[in-house]
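chain below, 294 aa
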Amino acid sequence: PLLLIVAVNLTLRNSRSGRVDWKGALIVSLSAFAAGKLSGILAAKSISYVLQHPDRLVSMLLDDLWAPLLVFSLYAAIEPMVRRAWPQTLVSWTRTLSGNFTDPLVGRDLLIGCVLGGTLVTASLFNPWFTNKLSSGPSLETLMGTRHTLGDLLRSAVGALFLSLAYLLVLLVIRLLVKRNWLAIVSFMLLAVLLALVAVISTTDTKVPQTLAAGIVFAIAFATFVLTALTRFGLLATVTSAMVLFSMQRIPVSLDTSVWYWEHTSLTVMLAIVALSGFGVFTSYRGWVSAQQQ
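prediction:
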């Protein structure tokens, strides 16, 4: 509720000054709505049953409408201020919204996001606190088939978008208070580390110093990761990295091809991430070649 109140107030403020990107906010919110509902349809026990019963389909479409409205408010609240404070954060993002998916900068940030997300996933595998306390564990629904896995991938994408916008809103509110970019970054870093340390201490047995130390290290690393992704690489890279992290944490992934769920779960996730990374490599490399030729 507090997040929504802040977002609505900032949206009204931006609207009065005529700086809101209504088109961009509408595209983002509708995309989140479509991805969320498609995820629900894919996760249903029987797609044919949902399609054959209009009342059930309408009920599914009308459920949780607050989510796209919150995304709309968040984006309308932060976009004008980000454009002024950290314009580089939105360059590849706005090109994606305009449909320019083959732009080299879009490909670069998609690739960077996949690398950052994969790095965080790898780091979490060696952190007992993250594995035991922070991760919600795998989603067993994804074991039911490929479409359930695809549905969870879409759900992870929506969650990544929401979390990235929320972090960016917090950063911008801090900047409104301190009036300086560098001071806002330092304050956000300290706040993120403090909150992460509180989470670590409250969920860790302080009598086990190894686990506590691992949690503290990961808390600092995670706060640094979020801040670097947002301010250095931009919103598109941040959303992509969070999506990779959520997907790899929620969906059972195994390199053992003999496990029964490998083909419709593990392979699906790995192919999705590899395809996204490959697209990033292809488009960014093509842009680099074009620049060299000119």
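Residues 146-178 form the longest helix (33 residues). Residues 126 and 214 are 9 Å apart (CA to CA).
thats it, cya
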